[in-house]
Amino acid sequence: MRILFLLLLAGSLQAQPFTDPAGAGMSARRLARIDSVIGQYVSNHWLNGAVAIVYRNGKLAYYKEIGYNDAERKQVMTTHRIFRIASQTKAITSAAIMMLVEEGRLLPDDEVAKFIPEFNKQKVLQTFHDADSSFTTVPANRNITIRDLLSHTSGIGYAQIGSPVANAIYAKAGVPAGITTQPITLGEKMKLLGSLPLFHQPGEKWTYGLNTDLLGYIVEIVSGMPLDTFFITRIFAPLGMTDTYFYLPGQKYGRLAELYSSDSTGRAIKMADHLTLNGDLPRNFPNSRGTYFSGGAGLSSTAHDYAAFMQMLLNQGTYNGKRLLSASSVRMMTSSQIGALGLSHGNKFGLGFEIITPESSAFTPESAGSFGWGGMFGSSYWIDPKEKIVAQLFINIFPFAHGDLAGKFRELVYQAIDQ
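Below the sequence we write its predicted structure tokens.
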């Protein structure tokens, strides 16, 4: 068995893409600082391990594993590990919606009620009673639209990770946060969501919520396909994303990254059998035959797979000669859609992405116009059209007591630019 494992590992190493820092206009010596900094987090027992990847000018500048997949067993991390990417799923669902827009099958300003009648004439929360989670409502000023969902301005909140009020209302109604192994379907819960109150008037605020899960159900309705089938046939296969799934096939169960947590001292410890977020959710939920395809949080992927998706966006919708989106759709997705509303440091939000503005670029090494997001289990990514960079850090730890690593990774990427 050991010989077979070594042969398989050798084959994986041989297939590793060639990195070319100089060809990407980056310094190999300065990129090595990424190894040092992440390695220090591992040495301090703050993190078990990570995979980081950086492309610039279409060239692979950096692609490494650091630390351990299983620190207790001293099982080293490998780049072929499949990570739970949680909210990085949102970008893929947003792209799917825009593909349907391009086919003339819907418009960004279509009302959600056009596709799901339960969202007609919704109510907005007025008062909430802690004792029994009952509430009163007032009528919404208008029906929510697909654009509201893409930009998180609909007023829909998040279950389990949202505000205490949203958590209580959604829990009482049985609406999950997106990750579940219960024998339920997306359509079943999204229809139910339509009967629940919005947490503010549509367009009034930016509220992170189950918007993209709802978009996933709209993809199913309009395309006539389950969301996993749409993703595989329309996005993953054209991009060569062969390791991205809602639920892994049995032969890939062993490649799922271990899931860690932080203890009260900030030390990384292996996650208990069930996520503290949801006591009935196994930590290895991707290793199951689930039926709930969460467009907002459900996917798992490799760094190399997700980088192909990012490179497609950087290339204005094309990758390896295949066009998934038009340049105009990518422009819309990466342009602010939230008017005077703003995120931290004045960042804006487009159709699926947080956007760095000329003003907010003063607070980050990213260029104005850069866009990205991250995932609950610690992963983060961004795309910088000016510097032609796609970069991401894949970790699986929740909660992560040392979240400053994401910011340090950004600094480490940009300081390595040579030309």
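Residues 28-43 form the longest helix (16 residues).
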